[in-house]
Fold Transglutaminase family protein.
Amino acid sequence: MTTLNVEVRLDYDAVEPTALLLQIEAAETEGQRMVSNELSAPGTDEMRRVPAEDGIGERLWLHCEDAFRCTYRARIEVTRDVPPLEGLAETPLHALPGEAVHYLLPSRFCPSGRFEAFVEDRFGALSGGAKIAAMRDWVEASFSYVPGASNADTDAVDTFLSRRGICRDYAHVLVSLARAATIPARMVAVYSAAVTPPDFHAVAEVYLGGAWHMVDPTGMSDPAELAVIGVGRDATDIAFLTSFAPIALKYQSVAVSRG
Amino acid sequence: MTTLNVEVRLDYDAVEPTALLLQIEAAETEGQRMVSNELSAPGTDEMRRVPAEDGIGERLWLHCEDAFRCTYRARIEVTRDVPPLEGLAETPLHALPGEAVHYLLPSRFCPSGRFEAFVEDRFGALSGGAKIAAMRDWVEASFSYVPGASNADTDAVDTFLSRRGICRDYAHVLVSLARAATIPARMVAVYSAAVTPPDFHAVAEVYLGGAWHMVDPTGMSDPAELAVIGVGRDATDIAFLTSFAPIALKYQSVAVSRG
Amino acid sequence: MTTLNVEVRLDYDAVEPTALLLQIEAAETEGQRMVSNELSAPGTDEMRRVPAEDGIGERLWLHCEDAFRCTYRARIEVTRDVPPLEGLAETPLHALPGEAVHYLLPSRFCPSGRFEAFVEDRFGALSGGAKIAAMRDWVEASFSYVPGASNADTDAVDTFLSRRGICRDYAHVLVSLARAATIPARMVAVYSAAVTPPDFHAVAEVYLGGAWHMVDPTGMSDPAELAVIGVGRDATDIAFLTSFAPIALKYQSVAVSRG
Amino acid sequence: MTTLNVEVRLDYDAVEPTALLLQIEAAETEGQRMVSNELSAPGTDEMRRVPAEDGIGERLWLHCEDAFRCTYRARIEVTRDVPPLEGLAETPLHALPGEAVHYLLPSRFCPSGRFEAFVEDRFGALSGGAKIAAMRDWVEASFSYVPGASNADTDAVDTFLSRRGICRDYAHVLVSLARAATIPARMVAVYSAAVTPPDFHAVAEVYLGGAWHMVDPTGMSDPAELAVIGVGRDATDIAFLTSFAPIALKYQSVAVSRG
């Protein structure tokens, strides 16, 4: 078991009143337990909570007049059991739960159909968890972690070619390769104490052996020590903050520590 | 009330055994009632049914050895109440049901963020149902319905520029314009007796006044007379047949009549 | 006649020795006369000059060890005769000079084929110079000049949708619209005293009435008062500085004054 | 020396009178000699010949009323000297002829900048002709020649991912890889007796050791036995027929034999 202490501070200015959609709280979900969870956004009206994608975590609607300042503090016990990836078998397609089906399909940042030839050439001899492990190792060995090398429009094809990016880019590539091999894969927003520099983190998650399993293609974090915030098809679905009018970042920090 | 009689025939050859995902049955959903519903696929093993996107309709996993032949016959009473679009108000964002939130976001074929400038310029003075009606009328007036002008990779930007396409292309554009105006919008696969030439049909659906409302930007069909098959973010999610190995079309027909 | 005084300063650091391709000198070409022209790049070896695209202007190969500092000063008399655009007829295609032919075709940043439907809808009733003038006026009226809204990968479709950009983006759109109307169009790098903030400037040039004619869709400059540096298919061909290894900008200024 | 006999037949219908740009005649250029050359297009007015890209070959403007039928027969002696690729050194950039410079840059179908990481990873240890030979061998070994797998919009990134295509796609990839390694590369339209099925053929050409050298990444043809039609940045520039209004193919054949 790992206990994570999370502290996030966000400080933005808005030029006009706007709705904000916030998703930064660790989720009440399998494999983790909230010891404490405290979100404070003075001067911002909390409008309503709604379940996030696949019912994992919540999104919070806020109304921001001219500034958004928010502090989030949580203590989370992670008790996730992480079996060795290599031993996991592919789940027959017809045995997939209904909500996993669309994770076989291409999405905005993960145009998985375009990777089928590469996946067949490079990983065609493998299957199940061994295939995913080989994909993860290939991504980690082939790509360089370079903050600033990508932007909010970068998709998995861009990253596959440029071989540079950050956690979301690595995860987009692994998600795309997995789907190209007909293995359901989704993105997960997480907190990790192992990320340098400290920031929101994102990993891939694949459906094998009848369950979802996180995989970090950057090699930075251990899935046994991650606190899940939310899931989705790709970065589109797991944004920590979505604004419906322009806002300007003034300050942002994410600190995660063990113990 | 309208009663629709549907008959679909599909005939495909497979070069190797493959899983198929079929979604052609009209859904048991609000506004329509199945009088009869009969799907027959001799020689193909039916593996399992799972709920489709948003729990509307079902997807059916099939195992196909070398050929897939399927007949679907249904009789559906459509009792949908269709209020005038112009009278519908925008639902405040924070009042949206959780499952509508991702229909505000860009998706693979509907990169809605790219249309914000155009939507603001052209439709910025309108709101709610009047805005959607103006978008629908603009699409219908500006575009030409040309089978063969688009393909499975065509997205809303392609269609916005080429101004030619089929129902899915029209719907992708309207869905993109609506989302660019911060109005939730999704794709709906439907049966319609008014489509020429007869085929599977697709329309847009927007969330206004606390409920989903179908809109057909091709102008061919009346939402009061449509039988819903399924919904999703864009064409990715509502494919009537997805094969996980190459298959070859031999014959396909869709017939829909009233009465 | 207008006399322009140009002063450019460039200051870059290189992390490793690299070849540089520089194109900042005003061209010895029709409609302008060099009164003086002085390029100085202390510490950088000048390797060779080669004619630039269409024989207009020159590119200069330099070898840079670790830093590139360059000053360019010129005085140019512009005697260009600029007939009213509206009076210019389209040149029959078969009467085009051979070197104008590829300016009818799509290029990297000007995928003109994608604009044919829009051009036909919006400008189909016009021809020749009147058509180009209408396109220029539409671009100027519809787009906002926003430094930072685009980057080196932005193409004419991106700008057509976002409606924001800088001179190169405006020119890419006008070049694309012209080519979509089967009127040869190219990009021109120029010096202008009318650009705010002062910078390298780019305009479109169309082939009408048997000659090339510059058109500035930003509305900032008058073609009669521009000093041409070079031409090409799009921004790819008229870069003022191309490095074959990473270099870092330290300082850059462009000053142009009349008299 | 090889002698090639070429016979081409084209038969198209036009729905309205249109200008056509035809480039199917073998070029009067170094390494090949026209023994005979006869182009006949009864019922189509020949308007004018202009030099094609880089002055290699000619483009022919035609006026077509309602149908275009054309026969081309030529006999060409190919005397091209083809040195072993592996022995060719890179030409220093500053020693490139001016007209080779833009062949270092990305173009519409050859977005070479996107391949730099892959080229450095895979071929970074090699240089000059040995590097090009390794790229050619990699393309030939990795890709499958599949007519119909690509279309007129397919670029080198598409093909790099799908690993399937025809001669133009293979050439686009090799041209892109070469440019990503700062070696000038262009497309060449050629006639070859070795192409199956018989058709117009396209290969890459790289500038090494002070001259252009053709390379066929499909492995089908020997550069010593090719008759050059024309050159350009990519498929955009070497189309055998460009129509400025819709035309419909009725029949087309290309036959090339030795002796």
